Amino acid sequence: MGKPLGILGGTFDPIHYGHLRPAQEVLRALDLAEMRFIPAAYPPHRHPPVATAEQRLRMVELAVAGVPGFTVDDRELRRGGPSYTVLTLESLRREFADRPLCLVMGRDAFEGIETWHQWERLPELAHLIVMTRPGWTIPPGDALPLWARNRRARNPGELAQTTGGKIYFQAVTPQDISATRIRDAIARNEPMEKLLPSTVNDYIRHTRIYRNRGN
Ligand code: ATP
Fold first, then answer.
1. Which domain range does residue 185 map to?
2. Domain count of the chain?
3. Which atom of ligand 1 is nearest to the CA of 18?
4. What is the pLDDT of residue 212?
5. Is residue 214 part of a domain?
6. Residue 11, ligand 1, Cβ within 6 A
7. φ/ψ of residue 4, rounded to 5
8. What pLDDT score does 213 carry?
9. Quick check: is 19 in a domain?
10. How far is the centre of ligand 1, averaged over its atoms, from the C-alpha of 22 (Å)?
């Protein structure tokens, strides 16, 4: 079956260490073959991004360049239309028929999953890996909706046994960073070196993406 493939979708407006460090921890903890970053072209569940899809893809490329195990996948930009995760997983499933797929998301994203397009199909197509985020801890079993409780995996080894269908909560070192906070910091001309890679920082300064813009 091969090692599981990690998938981290997001708006990445911009990508930051709150994505990159937890993703690294998940890659190691779950012994994934790779962590694939998939920027959303037209994220359907939120206000439109400030940076264009091409700029956000470029920032992800800069952030993962040279990092072992990290890759970028631009299928949501190539596809066009709303970036529904279910369509992305279907297309990955066609490519990797027998491979465990691990859809990775922060706890905040998981809380809203029942609003996603055809969300019931997501755990049929992949495992769901939920990372802790500051303010969010690993929930006790009885705090989860029934559909999630019944799918819960207790150890990462279970993820390599099926191609999908499990939900696993992975504690990661808290990173109190969000893209919203970074866009605010840029608007106020505050330093961002601790929040994102220098290559992304340089790109943002050069292109002035987040200057004089509403967030
Ligand atoms: P925004 O502030 O614009 O809402 P964001 O920083 O939350 O953006 P997204 O690109 O929307 O970033 O997030 C992509 C994925 O990464 C989501 O599943 C989100 O929960 C997760 N994520 C983002 N920041 C963190 C963080 N600091 N710790 C853990 N997970 C995170």
1. 5-207
2. 1
3. 27
4. 65
5. no
6. yes
7. -65, 150
8. 53
9. yes
10. 10
What CATH number is attached to the domain comprising 131?
3.40.50.620
- Do the domain assignments include residue 215? no
Does the beta carbon of 133 lie inside 6 Å of ligand 1? yes
At 21 the pLDDT is 98
Specify the pTM.
0.95
Rounded mean pLDDT, 107-114? 94
Is 212 part of any domain?
no
High-pLDDT (> 70) share of the chain, %:
98
Amino acid (one-letter) located at 28: R
